[in-house]
Amino acid sequence: MPSPILQPRHDAELADRFALSAATTRGAHLSTGDFGEWLAERGRANEFHVKRVPFADLDGWSFEEATGNLVHRSGRFFTVEGLHVTEMDGPYGDGPYADWHQPIIKQAEVGILGILVKEFDGVLHFLMQAKMEPGNRNLLQLSPTVQATRSNYTKAHRGAAVKYLEYFVGPERGRVVADVLQSEHGSWFFRKSNRNMIVEATGDVPLLDDFCWLTLGQINELLHRDNVINMDARTVLSCPPHTDSSANALMSDTQLLSWITEERSRHDVRIERVPLKHLPGWKTGESAIEHEAGRYFKVVGVDVVAGNREVTGWSQPLFEPVGLGVTAFLTHEFDGVPHALVSARVEAGFLDTIELGPTVQCVPGNYAHLDKRDQPPFLDTALQADRIRYEAVHSEEGGRFLNAESRYLVIEADEIDPPPGYAWLTLAQLASLVRHGHYVNVQARTLMACLNAIGLR
Questions:
Q1: Residue limits of the dTDP-4-dehydro-6-deoxy-alpha-D-glucopyranose 2,3-dehydratase domain (predicted)?
Q2: What is the pTM of this model?
Q3: What is the CATH class of 253-270+323-453?
Q4: Axis-axis angle for helices 427-434, 442-453 (nearest 10)
Q5: Domain boundaries, the chain
C-alpha cells in the first residue's frame, strides 16, 4: 500500500488570486456597465408573480389542529412554530425583553450556498445566478451559483434538478476553496445553518441561461447598488481568503477567543419550542399572524409564479418585518490598523447563545416607544452619522422573508471605549472567525462583504 503523500496546509497563492480578481473591474464576459440591461433582460425572459393570499388558500399548507403550527403536507421544507425565550440573568440587566414569545421558522435541513469560480484570462471569475425570490421587493437579484435547500436538491418538490449542483457535491466536484456551516437570521430561524462554499472549477463549465461570470471587482461594484446582490451571495462573499495586512490588533487572537467564550458563558438563555396556537402577545387572522402592538413582524401567505425556478409555481408562508432595518459597523483606525466594533448578540435561534454581530442591528421603529436608555446602543450614532464610508439597502433572505430590507452602513467613528458586550476587532480577525461556523452572524458577514467592496482591510 503506497504511503500517504503530504501536502501544504495552506495555498500561499490563493489569497493573491482573489485579490487580483477584486482589483479587476473589467470582466471577460460581461461588463459592469452592461449588467443592468442583462439583469433586466433575464427578468423579461421569465414570468414572475407574487400575490398575497389568505392562509386558507395556501396550497399544501395548513395549521395543525393540536399545535396550530403552520406545516406543509409533505412534512418537508419548514414549519412555523412558537418560541418562548427567557434570558435569566443577563449580565447587563434583564432589560425590557428578558422574556418573550414569538413565531419562528423551524427548518432543520442544511442547504448549500455555493459559488463556482474559474479563471478567465488569468483572473478568477465568479458564476452568479439571476434568481427570483418571492420576498425580494424587486424579485430578481444575483444569487450564488447554487442556492438550494436539501428539499430542493433532493427534489422533494418533484421539480427540475438544481443547476451546477454536481460541482459542489459528489465525486465530480471541483477544488474546494471555502466550506463552512454558517447560521442564518437568528431572530427568525431556529438553529438554521447553511453550507457556505466556494469551489474552483478545473475544467470547462457550460454557461446556462440566467447565469453570468463576474470578477470579484465587478461584484464589489454591484454591492454599492441597492438590492442587487442577495443575502445568500453576500454571506458566501465574506468567505474568500485574503492576505492579513497587519499582524497587530487591540486584542490578541487568544484574548479574542477568550472574550467570545466569556460572553457565551455569562448569558443564561432558555429556549422552549411551544405551539403556535394561542401564542401570548400574538394574534392570528385570516391573512396574517401579527403582534398585538403592531411591531416586529408578521407571518403572511403568498402564491408564487417563477418561470425559471425548479418548480414554476407554489405557495408558502413568509415573515414580513414592520419597517426598514439599520445594520452598521462603526470603524476606527488604531495606529493605522482598521478595526470594527462588534457586538456579542443573543438571538433566540442561535445554536450557541451568541454570535458576533454588527455594532447596530435593529428595526428602529420597534424601539421608538422606549426610553433612550432601553434603545439599542449606538443607534443614534448610526442614524445621525455623517462620516459614512459605505451605504446601501440590501434585502434579507428572500426565500423566507417578504420585503425585508436593511440599510447597511460602514461608519467612521471616533475612538470609543467599548461597553460590556462590545469589542474592537480587526477585519483580519473577523475573516479568520468566518472560516469557522457560528462565530459571525449573517448581518455581520454582509458587512464584511461590504468592507471588502470598499477595500477596507
A1: 34-239, 254-451
A2: 0.95
A3: alpha beta
A4: 130
A5: 253-270+323-453
